[in-house]
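Need residues for this backbone.
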């Protein structure tokens, strides 16, 4: 018996020599992390184990020194990136990405043109990479046919390779990797990338296989990253074929995978929903681009088209196409079948709960598979060995010795191993909680007492809002989209899309959604003190808001708007700022709510046009009503109206003045012009103990509601003017929507005069008193 066991043990202990010799050319699973997206995905939250290479983006080329440059705000991210991602995956390789796009092309052309500049740049790049712990570089954004001379680019790559090799010889460290990202095709407008140099000097080339059709350019719906498409339609397969025909070897190509899609506004939403439908431009965001994370949090059912390898869906008048799990898997299989080197995702922050990254990594490489299985096999063997040893010792213990000590050790080892295995399994399942919690219909039904009328807080255009309590005692507010309202669906989707990424103390937080059973519900944090209009316009309740509390409310709204306009990743125009959308928490802190009609802008875009008129009358600026233009100055205008209401307690729907023929703005302006602001203010207010003065607020408010949007201050300026009581400010011009048009001319000259005199005041006030 014992000899049999020993034989078995020897047999079982032998296999570990199988532990695989690592393949020198490993399958690349790379991904971009963008320093600009650090608010959405912090470096320490990257699941490094799903990747072989992680790329930190972007560094630049300094336009005067031609040296590698990292913007100071991004420097902390770059310097800690490699260390942090290695904690979760010690074998990860990190690359530093250098952006050379259209705007940087002139600088880059100047750089590659001169041997001395090339050398200086290369030296600085190597120094930075080593100082910051990167294992190589990615040169991103260079296009053939741009102003950059491709011959010179080839020279740069050759010199870079040589410098990297020589640095490796001298330092004894492994050479830095050299990688470049390229366009879908190797040749544009008969200018080709320097293929030969790329083939011999680069470790590989990332093909940016996406953004073929975009709603800002193409007035028809199309797949922006189709793997296959009919001839004459841009697609990935065609691009890869062209690259292979250009002479580059397949093992130098890495396929780019998009983690974003595009949204088109359909020209004829009643009829079209397929590819090639007429479209009037981008939807949802300024350029129509949307991250996968946001697409998934809307919870719609897309159609997967396996002919093109793309998913798409239509909601209301919007048509959205993107790569879902099926498309990612199909593309990874394609890359393997073509003998490519791997894939590279753009970009990690857009993944939803690592769903796409996991799909790409699964079955992405046989070696990986075998490795994974081998680990399981070895673990099983070890467990069996220990069990058998245990049994054997137990046998010995029973029969011959009394080796209690050993038994204990064995038992302990076994239980430890068990813990380790379950811990590993947890890591593998790895559920990072997404931004939004998904609630079941049953849980919301229970929380709101089956949507009882007692729990109803109010009714918006969107549907009723209920108060609820979760099992953990947390109070919530549930907004339930009426099933009959088609119009609300878009607002719902919009609100989910936008608020998923927003977090600020002065914005009402969305906790989650419920889309079960054709329901569309949004779950918010509950705001016990209701909305501002509830106090402001009520003769009794308005007394609960003294000037100190109102200043706090104004400050909160200002901070919320500053975040939307200046400090978040995108510029967000709320478009429906009004007293009923300012909610108050237990301490009367104000929070902006209701992003149903808000719009997202890229940082560089200042204003946009829309054909849909939204917002609430009285808070909507004239350029929007007349021409459908909205910009950040839209919310500044609404803020001005709100500010006038907070200091006066007056509604916009009434008329004021002796003849009751002035709207709120005109009335305020007339009184201010005559120096009779006091008559305008809510009589219960006393600003004598506050540094924030009513008169000052009135003047700032009037500046915000001026007719010409360019005359209105930015929120940054508003914030400064409200905080700094001695800073001189302009005299406001005639507000928008003044009824008496005859006075316009007279007022214009008058305003200019007041402006001049106000400037004089400014100068005198700057002299310290
Ligand atoms: C960083 O610097 C580059 C080049 O100077 C500039 O184009 C880019 O906008 C800057 N990025 C940020 C986030 O400041
Ligand atoms: C690019 O530069 C090389 C040498 O520096 C020169 O011979 C070639 O004509 C240039 N090509 C173009 C298109 O300017
Ligand atoms: C789309 O653009 C093309 C070319 O720019 C133009 O000929 C066509 O009329 C446009 N179609 C629509 C529906 O706007
Ligand atoms: C994908 O879409 C194209 C164009 O609309 C269509 O011809 C094709 O049949 C679709 N493929 C599948 C599998 O539905």
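Answer:
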């Amino acid at each position: 018996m014992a000899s049999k066991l020993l034989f078995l043990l020897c047999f079982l202990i032998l296999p570990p020599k199988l532990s695989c010799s690592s393949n020198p050319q490993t399958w690349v699973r790379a991904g971009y992390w963008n320093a600009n997206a650090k608010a959405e995905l912090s470096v320490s939250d990257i699941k490094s184990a799903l990747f072989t290479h992680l790329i930190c983006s972007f560094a630049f080329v300094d336009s005067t020194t031609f040296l590698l440059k990292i913007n100071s705000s991004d420097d902390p991210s770059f310097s800690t990136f490699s260390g942090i991602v290695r904690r979760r995956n010690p074998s990860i390789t990190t690359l530093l990405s250098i952006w050379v796009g259209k705007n940087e092309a002139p600088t880059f052309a100047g750089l590659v043109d001169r041997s001395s500049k090339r050398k200086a740049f290369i030296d600085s790049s190597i120094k930075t990479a080593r100082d910051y712990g990167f294992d190589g570089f990615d040169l991103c954004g260079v296009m053939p046919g741009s102003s950059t001379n491709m011959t010179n680019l080839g020279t740069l790559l050759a010199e870079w390779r040589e410098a990297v090799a020589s640095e490796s010889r001298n330092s004894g460290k492994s050479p830095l990797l050299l990688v470049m990202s390229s366009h879908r095709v190797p040749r544009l407008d008969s200018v080709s990338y320097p293929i030969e140099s790329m083939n011999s000097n680069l470790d590989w080339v990332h093909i940016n296989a996406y953004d073929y059709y975009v709603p800002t350019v193409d007035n028809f719906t199309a797949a922006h990253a189709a793997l296959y498409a009919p001839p004459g339609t841009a697609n990935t397969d065609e691009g890869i074929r062209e690259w292979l025909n250009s002479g580059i070897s397949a093992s130098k190509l890495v396929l780019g995978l998009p983690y974003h899609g595009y949204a088109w506004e359909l020209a004829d939403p009643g009829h079209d929903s397929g590819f090639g439908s007429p479209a009037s431009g981008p939807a949802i965001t300024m350029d129509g681009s949307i991250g996968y994370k946001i697409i998934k949090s809307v919870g719609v059912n897309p159609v997967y088209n396996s002919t093109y390898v793309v998913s798409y869906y239509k909601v209301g008048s919007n048509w959205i196409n993107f790569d879902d799990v099926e498309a990612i898997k199909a593309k990874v299989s394609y890359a393997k079948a073509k003998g490519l080197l791997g894939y590279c995702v753009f970009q990690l922050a857009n993944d939803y709960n690592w769903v796409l990254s996991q799909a790409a990594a699964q079955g992405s490489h046989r070696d990986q598979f075998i490795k994974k299985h081998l680990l399981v096999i070895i673990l099983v063997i070890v467990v069996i060995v220990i069990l058998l040893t245990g049994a054997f010792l137990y046998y010995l213990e029973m029969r011959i010795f009394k080796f209690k000590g050993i038994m204990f050790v064995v038992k302990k080892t076994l239980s430890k191993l068990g813990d380790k295995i379950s811990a590993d399994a947890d890591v593998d399942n790895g559920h990072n909680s997404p931004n939004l919690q998904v609630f079941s219909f049953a849980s919301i039904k229970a929380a709101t007492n089956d949507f009882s009328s007692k729990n109803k807080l109010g009714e918006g255009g969107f549907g009723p809002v209920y108060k609820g309590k979760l099992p953990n005692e947390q109070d919530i507010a549930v907004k339930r989209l009426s099933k009959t309202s088609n119009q609300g669906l878009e607002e719902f989707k919009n609100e989910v899309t936008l608020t998923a990424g927003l977090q600020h103390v002065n914005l009402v937080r969305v906790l989650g959604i419920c889309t079960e059973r054709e329901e569309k519900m949004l779950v918010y944090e509950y705001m016990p003190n209701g909305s501002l209009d509830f106090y402001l316009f009520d003769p009794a309740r308005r007394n609960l808001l003294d000037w100190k509390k109102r200043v706090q409310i104004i400050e909160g709204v200002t901070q919320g708007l500053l975040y939307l306009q200046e400090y978040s990743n995108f510029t967000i125009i709320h478009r429906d700022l009004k007293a009923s959308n300012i909610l108050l928490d237990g301490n009367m802190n104000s929070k902006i709510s209701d992003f149903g009609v808000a719009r997202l802008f890229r940082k560089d875009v200042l204003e946009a046009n829309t054909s849909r008129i939204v917002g609430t009358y009285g808070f909507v600026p004239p350029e929007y009503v007349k021409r459908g233009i909205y910009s950040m100055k839209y919310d500044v205008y609404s803020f001005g109206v709100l500010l006038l209401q907070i200091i006066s307690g007056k509604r916009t729907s009434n008329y004021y003045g002796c003849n009751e023929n002035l709207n709120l703005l005109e009335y305020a302006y007339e009184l201010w012009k005559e120096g009779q602001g006091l008559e305008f203010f809510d009589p219960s207010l006393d600003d004598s103990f506050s540094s924030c003065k009513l008169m000052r607020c009135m003047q700032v408010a009037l500046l915000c509601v001026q007719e010409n949007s360019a005359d209105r201050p930015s929120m940054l300026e508003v914030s400064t003017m409200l905080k700094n009581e001695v800073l001189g400010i302009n005299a406001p011009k005639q507000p928008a929507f003044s009824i008496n048009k005859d006075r316009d001319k007279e007022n214009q000259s008058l305003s200019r005069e007041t402006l001049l005199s106000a400037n004089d005041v400014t100068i005198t006030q700057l002299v310290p008193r």
